[in-house]
Amino acid sequence: MSSTGPYRWIAGTLRWGSYLSALLLAVGVVWVALDPSVPIQVGPGMPFRILGEQLMTGNPYALMQLGLLVLLATPLLRVVVAAGTFWRIRERRYTVVALLVLLSVAASVWLSGGR
Amino acid sequence: MSIAPFIAFLVALGLVAGTFGGLLGLGGSILLVPVLTMVFGFPMAIAVGTGLLCVVATSCAAASVYVERGWADVRLGMLLELATVLGAISGALVMPLLSETLLKGLFGAFMLYAAVLLWRRPPGESEEVGETLPAYRVRNRALGTGVCYGVGGVSAMLGIGGGPIQVPLMYLGMGVPLKMAAATSSFLMGMTAAAGALIYYGRGQVMVALTAPLVVGVFLGAQLGSRLAHRVRSRWVHVLLILVLLALAVMMLGEAFGFSLRGLA
Question: What residues of B are in contact with residue A109 (Cβ under 8 Å)?
Answer without folding.
Answer: 198, 202
